[in-house]
């Protein structure tokens, strides 16, 4: 059963933020996340790859996770969009995650990230060849960071 686009992603503000995810990805990487004139909200939500984004708070909180992200992280949209993004990484690997975010801040994007993440259910998995990029508007203001990946390896339970 496919899950329709949640109401929270249909507001004008959120549609603008989702458009920025798609537009900034294409501008920075040269690769589109969404087909040319498709609705970015619907396209990002239903994409077969994980797509997540967080804001610019001191402890950034996810504001978007698509259907694939909710499945992979074993969570609901309400729980995911209330979670600080650092909690998607294991405690021991949060320092590695911060180094990644610093590199993205310096370079605009990276497309070679690998790292271990943990689902809400405690399942550990290693993401590979993830693209992480800054959400930069046309005026150069940074609105957060986003990531996408479609390769992972489930890791054995400890």
Description:
The model has no long low-confidence stretch (mean pLDDT 91). With 158 residues, the protein is an alpha+beta fold. Strands 1, 2, 3, 4, 5 and 6 form a six-stranded antiparallel β-sheet that branches. The radius of gyration is 15 Å and the shape is globular. It is 31% helix and 27% strand. The termini are far apart. The longest helix is centred in the first third of the chain and has 18 residues, at 12-29. The chain is built from five helices and six strands; from the N terminus they run ααββαααββββ. The chain has a single domain, classed as 2-Layer Sandwich (Beta-Lactamase), CATH 3.30.450. The relative contact order is 0.17. It holds the Pfam family MEKHLA. InterPro entries: MEKHLA. Residues 19-152 form the MEKHLA domain. This is MEKHLA domain-containing protein.
CATH class term: Alpha Beta
The CATH homologous superfamily is named PAS domain
**What's the number of structural domains?**
1
Helical content stands at 25-40%
Structural class: alpha+beta
The shape, in one word, is: globular
Annotated CATH architecture: 2-Layer Sandwich
List the topology elements.
Layout: H1 12-29, H2 40-46, E1 50-54, E2 62-65, H3 67-72, H4 77-80, H5 94-107, E3 109-118, E4 124-136, E5 142-149, E6 152-154
Antiparallel strand pairs: 1-2, 1-5, 3-4, 4-5, 4-6
Short description:
This is MEKHLA domain-containing protein. The protein is 31% helix and 27% strand.
């Amino acid at each position: 059963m496919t899950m329709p686009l949640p109401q929270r992603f249909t507001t004008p503000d959120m549609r603008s933020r989702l458009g920025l995810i798609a537009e900034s990805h294409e501008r920075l990487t040269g690769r589109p996340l969404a087909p040319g004139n498709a609705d970015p909200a619907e396209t990002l939500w239903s994409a077969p790859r994980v797509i997540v984004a967080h804001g610019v708070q001191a402890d950034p909180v996810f504001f978007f996770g698509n259907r694939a992200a909710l499945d992979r992280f074993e969570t609901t949209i309400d729980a995911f969009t209330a979670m600080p993004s650092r909690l998607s990484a294991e405690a021991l690997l949060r320092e590695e995650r911060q180094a990644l975010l610093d590199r993205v801040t310096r370079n605009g994007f990276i497309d070679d990230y690998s790292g271990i993440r943990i689902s809400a259910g405690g399942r550990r998995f290693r993401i590979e060849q993830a693209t992480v990029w800054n959400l930069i508007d046309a005026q150069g203001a940074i609105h957060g960071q986003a990531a996408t990946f479609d390769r992972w390896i489930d890791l054995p339970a400890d």
